[in-house]
Amino acid sequence: MRAVLSLVTAVAATSELPRINLNAKSMLEGKWWAQVGDHVVHTPHAKTGLSSNVGDYYYAYGSHAALSQELQEKRVAGAGRVHIFHLPEGKDALSTALPKVSHRRDSVSALVQLSHKVVLSDAKLFPDFNLPEDYASGLSASGQQKEKQVTDSITSSALMQKLKVQLADMLLALGLTRQDQKELTELGDGSTHTRSYSNPKATANAVSFLEKEFQEMGYRTCRQTFGDQADVVAFLPGSDADSGSVTVGAHYDSRPFEGLAPGAVDNGSGATAVLEIAKAFAAAGVRPKKTIMFVCFAAEEPGLLGSAEFAKRLSSAAASSFVQDGMNASSQLVSRMCGSDSGSLAFMQAQSSAATMRRRSRHEKHEALVMDEVAWKSPNIDDSLGAVVNLESYDWATEPLKHLAGASRAANGERLKVTHSSNPFGSDHMSFLEKGMQSVLSIHGDDENYPHYHQSSDAMDQVNSELYTMIAKMNAGAAIRLAGHA
Ligand SMILES: [Zn+2]
């Protein structure tokens, strides 16, 4: 019996949806079709054993390597990193869960039911993000001026210098000075240059480095600890902290887990951008309405652990548990994000009144800008298109999406092409989205093809300073637009 069953499976696995060229789709009268990259798949013949009902098919985005054995067997079409699966019993009938709590190439997006005429990108380049015609930044004249001051002060040379210092394998290759060597050796574990979450000494050194950086800028900071890991958070209190917060975040850990792991693009670039944006805000004296939190997340690589801890504390459900009467919103947010153990949080919960809880959770709105791999310029993207950033999030993340695109237009003009994928997966933005908070990932435009991904060769020579600087400016401007300015 087992043999027969596996034979049936094998037959089903070899069936694929029929495909034709894009320009021939007018011949498909009476059939459903879906565009997959440069071609069209359509209603299969009964003899293939595949259902003729379009609703029996689902699609997801992600690396082929991230698909489980079960999904690979049910894959009936696809191109690049979009995959179509035949699931006549529905997606909930899958026996293995989608691998979604891991890093980019080990993850796939949520399964979405296929529909007639849907257009699926084969992901070399996602479609342009179209800024709504009636878009406005919402900032006053002085807020706009502050935004310009901030984005002007984020320079390529400062970003590159800070990134060199933050990385750990650069001292000889780049001929850095003695002072730089001293700073560099604060990272890694003294013998191997890494920020891997699994190396306790390297993690502790990275945390101290980041904390010191924020403190030198004048920020109040905290270590948000969980297990043996810690997110590093810097606070810029808002004038109307009751209205919520804006998070600017990136993970600081790197891969591979063993050996040299400089992680220049992934994610020295993101973490360093957070530092430089924070520095620009401090120098310009930004006075936001919402509280802004600059965060370097721990342990993204083993499964988005740091951002999950952060988002859990930030979500409104948690808010209503951690509120204390008589505490202003800004201090309340600090204690809820930084409370070190569940015992003290439980104490605070016991002190809260139901009325306070209701008041807070009704008004607060939290949004997050996440940067990961923001510095590699793909040679696969036609030079005439210039530099490309991809904004990845569900379409309901309207506020950060439009403000990112708007801020980029102001700071970068047409030099940065802004694309959008509405099938998010596999980075820290997911931790917020899963809690219902609007969050957008900025990532370079061809993230599937970075050849040094998770390797010891993910080093400084892979960094494109021009693309990197434009993405940092975009996120800085968007943070002011989201937070508002007093
Ligand atoms: Zn990463």
From TrEMBL:
Peptidase M28 domain residues: 232-476
UniProt superkingdom: Eukaryota
TM ranges: none
Cofactor(s) the record lists: Zn(2+)
Cited InterPro entries: M28_fam, Peptidase_M28
Pfam families tied to this protein: Peptidase_M28 (PF04389)
GO molecular function: metalloexopeptidase activity
Entries under Gene3D superfamilies matching the protein: Zn peptidases (3.40.630.10)
SUPFAM superfamilies: Zn-dependent exopeptidases
Any one GO BP annotation for this protein: proteolysis
Annotated PANTHER family: METALLOPEPTIDASE M28 FAMILY MEMBER, PEPTIDASE M28 DOMAIN-CONTAINING PROTEIN
Family to which this protein belongs: Belongs to the peptidase M28 family. M28B subfamily.
Name under which the protein is recorded: Peptidase M28 domain-containing protein
Lineage, broadest ranks: Eukaryota, Sar, Alveolata, Dinophyceae, Suessiales
